[in-house]
Amino acid sequence: VQLVESGGGLVQPGGSLRLSCAATGFSFENSGMDWHRQAPGKQRELVASISAGGGRTLYADSVKGRFTISRDNTKNTLFLQMNSLKAEDTAVYYCRAVVIGTLYWGQGTQVTVSS
């Protein structure tokens, strides 16, 4: 199982970024997927989840209305569209897969929101 995130970077407050997570080595289309983030000095937290088929999504209250999780099962890729970014969104963002009861994490991509 391999998860590779990309799309992070430095953005000004109010800006947007789109994160991607390329998945290989498992049945992506049959696996629920999550995005998590970890800010310096804080615990890792769930940002958003999506069901295997993409029909059900869940968001942390702090990102509702600003972030959108989606997936392309034909390309084995998970996305996180982040709009109206705030300084408090600064963190390393990780995608996660649950495969037959085992958790797999990507290496993370840094998102920094600063003027």
In short:
By secondary structure, this protein is an all-beta fold.
Classify the secondary structure makeup into a structural class.
mainly beta
What overall form do the CA principal axes indicate?
Answer: globular
Largest sheet: 7 strands, mixed
Radius of gyration: 13 Å
Query: What is the count of helical runs?
Result: 0
Uncertain parts: none
| Average pLDDT | 96
Question: Strand fraction band?
Answer: over 45%
From the N-terminal CA to the C-terminal CA, the straight-line distance is 37 Å
Share in helix: under 10%
> Would you report the number of β strands?
11
What is the ordering of alpha helices and beta strands? EEEEEEEEEEE
How is this structure best described in words?
The chain has strands at residues 2-6, 9-11, 17-24, 33-38, 45-50, 57-59, 67-72, 77-82, 91-99, 102-105, 109-113. The protein is an all-beta fold and 115 residues long. The strands form 2 sheets. Strands 2, 4, 5, 6, 9, 10 and 11 form a 7-stranded mixed beta sheet that branches. The chain has a 4-stranded antiparallel beta sheet with strand order 1-3-8-7, with no helix packed on it. The protein is globular, with a radius of gyration of 13 Å. The mean pLDDT is 96.
